[in-house]
Every structure is written in C-alpha cells, then in structure tokens.
Predict the structure.
Amino acid sequence: MTAVWVSADQERCISGGRCMAATSEVFDQDEEGLVVVLTPQVAPELEDRVRKAAYLCPSRAIRIGDGPTQG
Amino acid sequence: MNAPTTTANEDLFAYPQDRACPWQPSPGYQDLGRQGPLHRVRLWDGRWIWMVTGHSQARRLLADPRMSADRSRDDFPAVLPRLDAPIFKPIAIIGFDPPVHDVHRRLLAPDFSLKQVRAMRPRVEDLARRLVADMLQAGPPVDLVEAYALPIPSMVISELLGVPYDDHEFFEAKTVGLLQAKSAEDAERAGRELWDYLDGLITRKEREPGGAGVLSRLAGEVDEDGDLTREDLLRIALALLIGGHDTTSQMIALGVVTLLEHPGQLAALRADPDVLPAAVDELLRLVSITDVSGVRVATEDIEIDGEVIRAGEGVLVSSSMTNRDPGVFPRPYEFDVHRTRGGNAASGRQHLTFGFGIHQCLGQNLARMELEVAFSVLFEGIPGLRLGVPLEALPSRSGGTMQGVHTLPVEW
C-alpha cells in the first residue's frame, strides 16, 4: 500500500483549527494560530481522519498526495 | 436592487419565515429543501436572491472566490431591513473580501486559536459553576438567559477583548437592539451607541497602553497608513463584541431547551461525558442558531448544478437546511448525540452552522468550548432542571434570521 503524505498551506490557513480538532496527532497550530503538519507521512491508521481533516478545512489549505511536498 | 422584476417576484417564496419549533427550520424552508438545492426567494424590499439548501452546493459557493462578502457593494443584498443600516456597511471581517479580510483575520487568529481557547477553559468552568451556585441560592423559577446563558459568553468576550464587564447591561441591550431591530433606523441608532461606547473605550486604551485584552493590544498597533486604521479597529471591536455574546448565549438557551425536550438524548449525554463534544456539534447542526451560513453576491456568472448564478445576483446559504441535506445527514431532522461517532467524513461535524470558506466563524472554537462547559456544568449542578413554561409558551424571537428566546423560564 502506497504511503499517504499530507501538507498544509499556511498562506491559505484561516486558523479554524478543524484539522487539529480532528487529528491532533498530525496537525498543530503555531503561535500565530496557523496550521503546522507534525508528521507529513501519514500512518495508515490515521489516513481516514487526515482525509476528514482535509474535508473539514474551510480554506482548503490541506493537500493529500502520494509523496512529500516541498515548501 | 433588481427592481424591474419586482412584480414577477411576488410569486416567489418570501424570506425569512419564522420557526414553528425552536430547533427546526420553518415549515416553509423544509418544503423548499425537498424541492432541490437552489431556490429563488423574495426579500422584504422586493428583490429576489438565491437560497441554497443543498450541502455540497453550499460548500462550493461559500469557498468560491467569485462570491463576494463585501457589504459595501451596491448589489449586496440586505436580507432584512436592519441590514440596510450604514453601520453594517461594512461590518469588520465578515463584510470584507481579501486582501483586507485576510489581514484583519490574521491579526485576530492567535487570540481565537484552539490552543488559546483550551487554555481559557478552566476559568470558564469556574464562571459557570459560580453562576449555577447563584441560581441554586436564588431558587426557582429563574430566567436562564439572564442568569446563565448570557453571562457566560458576555463575561468571556469582555475579558478576551478587554471590555469592562461592568458595562454588560449596556452592550447586551444595544446588541439586541441592533440585531433585533425591525428597521434600518433603529439598528443604526443602537449600533451608533455601541460605536460611540467603543470609541471612548479605545481612546482610554490609547491613553493608557499595556492593558489586558485584544483591543488593548490592537490599540497599540493602529497605523493610519498601514493594515489597521483606527476605524478598522472600531469596526473589529464592534463585530467581536456583538458576535461574541449574542449567538452563543442563544445557542446555550436553545440547546438547553432541545436537550430538555429530548430526555433520552440528555440521558445519553449524562451517561457518557465523552459524548459532549459530539453532542455540542449535533446541537449546533440541529439548532442552527443564526439560520444563515453566509450571504454573498456573485461577481461573475457561476454555473452550479445546471443553474447559472449571474454576476450581481445575491446568494443566501441556509444553515438550518444545508444541515439537513439528507444526502449528508441520515435522519436529518432527528437529534442524535451519537451522530458524530466514527471517523468518516459523513459525520455530524460537517454542519455549516459556522459557515465555510475563508469567512468561517472566527469564534467557532471559543463557542464550542463555552457550549461544552455551559451544558455540562448546568446539568451536573441542577440535575432536576426543567422548563418553567410549556414549550409553546416560550417567547421566541421572530421576524428575523437570528433564532432565540427573549427569556427562558426554568425550574428544578
């Protein structure tokens, strides 16, 4: 099974905290309230919840792909 | 205003319509929802706008940068007469498009982040316990709005902003005056009084820097040539003070009513405190306190589900109806505190009560925390709580979009 990678765009983030509320193992907020990805390579058991976090993100700042994203 | 079509609009569904049940949308909206996701509805001034009741259509439109939230635009619909008041044009954050919206929102994001809100929780729990103790000492009957539902968010937002809570009776009354006004003139009058009050408050903060709260901090960041002018700060102060207490207080009140009228759900919540966050989101979904997820105007033609929303046409997303899209929420009219269980996307948390897109409610984490604390402390402290009047006799707000009760008599 191919590993899933997640990235988050701080430029798009509006600090809603939905990702952190859904999956605190993967998402955090920095001091500005902006999204931080803790573990870009998603553990298989967390994949569903990471997809849910991406769906809930109001500003569509979360991207899920099959490889690491730069920047 | 698209006046030439006014006569033809008379046949259209008139918006808004009052609820018949405190936690269910008006029967008329329920009929509309059964007919499809997009509808033309007629406003008080004869103009028609799109009303969105479909969940996926609402998400797409609210996240679409071609939809403007700029309330100072001539073609922006005034959904109610009061929204025609100059004080609402523009209201900070919610009534601005990028880039101004994004700059102001970023100034406030740290104060409303999930971490910040979690750190505030113990103090809010102490406050709620104190209010319950006061109610127990006073004895029944009690107006739960005045004794509990309003003081919690009102004290919290006062402390967060740095507004003296001693002035709460004034700003609460003027907020109701502004949000429940039946005319633009009445709204403007109440709004100006709040504006002048905040103007004086910010002047004091400018003279004595270093005070507590968001407004004190921002008063030190005002730059007439920069990202935050003094007028920006006043508009932000007004939006946060209003937005920070009225909707949350009414959500506490109607949430309590909904729980009391569903004893099985209340028992499920009492039996398992871990259900609390899910129960709060389910109540947010069901009660949809503002009834509206957002109002926008299209800046370009937008095709959606075989319809075309033309540039200049207004769009209103109904939170109460998108939250009952049967394709997303099975048994949509049922109150089920276990709805959010499980990790799949089709859970209760995807309600649109806080909106969607870049304008999603700034205070959503704060509101959720206040609601969790309010319900848990109340039902723990007063297990025998019951309504003091029959459900049908509750004095409900009418003629607008913001739902609520003027008073909530309770006994135990």
About this structure: The radius of gyration of chain B is 21 Å. The interface with chain A takes residues 63, 102, 105-106, 109-110, 112-116, 343-345, 347, 349-350, 355-358, 360, 364-365 of chain B (CB under 8 Å).
